Amino acid sequence: MARCIVVLSLALCLMATAASAQSPGDIIDRVEKFIHSAIAKSARSRWSKLPEPEYACMEQKLQERGDSLEALIKRGVPPNDSRLAKVRSQCRGVSASRTFQRLEDQAYKRSEQDRLLTASDLRDCEKQCGESSSCAALTYFREEKICRFMPAATELREDEGADSAFCTESITGSVAPH
Fold it and tell me: Is the residue at 44 inside a domain?
């Protein structure tokens, strides 16, 4: 509570010079926007600390009920909000266990949304892709030990120095039925 008072006081001081030409209603609106922005920023920070599989599961469950994480964040709702307890319990312990269909000696053509990472082998590349909600396909370049993630599969081409894979199963785990 004291922190809120300090933030409110600081906001009022910062706006004092501009306030002389504004009505009290304008000042109150600006302070409310400032406080709401700080609350939303705090909520975003808390949500970003969730493991990616749990975050993706929460997003999916919320979309199923017509809501979204982004909407909750904008409203300043943190992950530990009691209204989300049931959904959170369904997503806790979710693992990024995905299965992949492998395509030997083939590489996907580049796309503008590719992401490059290092990986020790194809299995490591698949593991990293499986942990990312934005990875649907990959190409592993064996000699360079480079893994290229893609949000969607592109056209394949023959490449004796590469192996590719695409995700055949979405995130699974201990998700309770809804």
Answer: yes
